[in-house]
Amino acid sequence: MADTTLLALFSDLDPAAEAIERLHQLGLKDEQITVISGVPVMERILGRPIQWTNVSRLAMGGAAAGFLFGVFLNYGTPKLYSVQVGGQPLLPIPMGMILIFEMTMLFLLLATFLGVFLESYFPNYQPLEYVPEVSDGKIGIFFRCPEAERQAYQDAMSKAGAETVKPAEARQL
User: Fold this and answer.
1) d(CA 103, CA 65)
2) Would you call 110 exposed, middle or buried from its count of C-beta atoms within 10 A (0-12, 13-18, 19+)?
């Protein structure tokens, strides 16, 4: 039995959340439902599972690496190449705190950027769903349903408040 992909467009969040709940009641799993929106929407608003990310772990790892690098620059370098300058301490603590802070923040920012870059799968060479109406503020829900039950799914989406429910198709930009 073949599956078909349908697209339901909504103008507001409440009907979209209700439509996702109806899709769950009809037996669809979260893996079969994709929500696209022109603005970021938290998962719990639409009743979707939370998307976990590794960006915070990468950022904290970058901060730790930056802290260690700053400590090495501030305290390791004078130990390796000691140069005594008349009456100055070999290990300057106040200036070293600034260096350690700056290296920690630099590495944290670089690791965060790298984490976001990797988590977004950029560049993505796979075809993605794009609907021009979503750019105009609508919320699109793509879902895969059995071809035999297509009409029941379309009716459920219409009752939930969908403006249009139609088969998803590839579009040329």
Assistant:
1) 9
2) middle
Would you kindly state where each structural domain of the chain is located, as residue ranges? 3-39+137-167, 56-119
What is the C-alpha end-to-end distance of the chain, expressed in Å? Answer: 32
| pTM of the full structure | 0.63
Examine the pLDDT at 91 and tell me if it is beyond 50.
yes
Tracing tokens 């603590």 back to the chain, one arrives at 93
Which CATH class, in words, describes the domain spanning 3-39+137-167?
Answer: alpha beta
Percent of the chain scoring above 90 in pLDDT: 26
| 63 and 108 Cβ atoms separated by less than 8 Å | yes
DSSP 38: S
